[in-house]
C-alpha cells in the first residue's frame, strides 16, 4: 500500500472549480442562504444587513416586536419620489435612484461634478408577514417599513410558564 495520498505535499491537486457569480451581491446572498440552511435559520434573518449589502444603502435596522417586523433603511441623498418598495409574496424589493450635481465657480475656474446611481435590494421575509397592511414612511433620509404579522402568526405565540 502506498501512503503518498496521506502526505499533503505529495497529493495531486486538481484545480478547484468555481461557479461564476453575476456579481458580488449574488455571492453574498448565496453565502447567507448556505449559512441559513446549515444552521436551520429562517431565510434572510441571519444576515445582519438582510441582504442590503450594497454600499449605496446605508444602515439597516430590523426588529420584531408588537406583532410586526420593522425595517429602517438609511437612504441618504434619495428623494421619496425616487424610492420604490414592492412586496411580492414574501419577497421585499427596495430600489432607489439618487443623483447629485455640484457646481463650483472661481476665478477662471468652472467645475461641475455629477453622480447618478440606482441601488436595488431584495430580501426574503418570513412567511408570516401580512402584505396587505404594510406601512411605509420616508423622512430625513430614512425609509421605515412596518410589516405586520398575520393574525394566525400572532395566535401561535403563547407564554410558557416555568415552575412547579
Automatic annotation (TrEMBL):
<dbReference type="InterPro" id="IPR008978">
    <property type="entry name" value="HSP20-like_chaperone"/>
</dbReference>
<dbReference type="InterPro" id="IPR031107">
    <property type="entry name" value="Small_HSP"/>
</dbReference>
<feature type="domain" description="SHSP">
    <location>
        <begin position="51"/>
        <end position="164"/>
    </location>
</feature>
<dbReference type="Pfam" id="PF00011">
    <property type="entry name" value="HSP20"/>
</dbReference>
<comment type="similarity">
    <text>Belongs to the small heat shock protein (HSP20) family.</text>
</comment>
<dbReference type="InterPro" id="IPR002068">
    <property type="entry name" value="A-crystallin/Hsp20_dom"/>
</dbReference>
<protein>
    <submittedName>
        <fullName>Hsp20/alpha crystallin family protein</fullName>
    </submittedName>
</protein>
<feature type="region of interest" description="Disordered">
    <location>
        <begin position="1"/>
        <end position="27"/>
    </location>
</feature>
Amino acid at each position: 500500500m502506498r501512503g503518498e495520498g496521506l502526505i499533503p505535499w505529495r497529493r495531486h491537486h486538481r484545480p478547484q472549480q468555481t461557479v461564476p457569480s453575476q456579481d458580488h451581491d449574488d455571492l453574498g446572498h448565496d453565502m447567507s442562504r448556505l449559512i441559513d440552511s446549515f444552521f436551520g435559520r429562517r431565510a434572510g434573518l441571519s444576515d445582519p444587513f438582510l441582504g442590503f449589502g450594497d454600499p449605496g444603502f446605508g444602515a439597516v435596522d430590523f426588529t420584531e416586536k408588537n406583532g410586526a417586523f420593522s425595517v429602517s433603511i438609511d437612504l441618504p441623498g434619495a428623494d421619496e419620489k425616487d424610492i420604490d418598495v414592492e412586496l411580492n409574496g414574501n419577497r421585499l424589493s427596495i430600489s432607489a435612484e439618487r443623483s447629485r450635481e455640484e457646481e463650483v465657480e472661481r476665478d477662471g475656474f468652472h467645475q461641475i461634478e455629477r453622480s447618478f446611481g440606482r441601488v436595488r435590494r431584495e430580501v426574503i421575509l418570513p412567511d408570516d408577514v401580512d402584505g396587505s397592511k404594510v406601512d411605509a414612511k420616508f423622512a430625513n433620509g430614512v425609509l421605515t417599513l412596518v410589516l405586520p404579522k398575520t393574525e394566525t402568526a400572532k395566535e401561535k405565540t403563547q407564554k410558557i410558564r416555568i415552575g412547579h
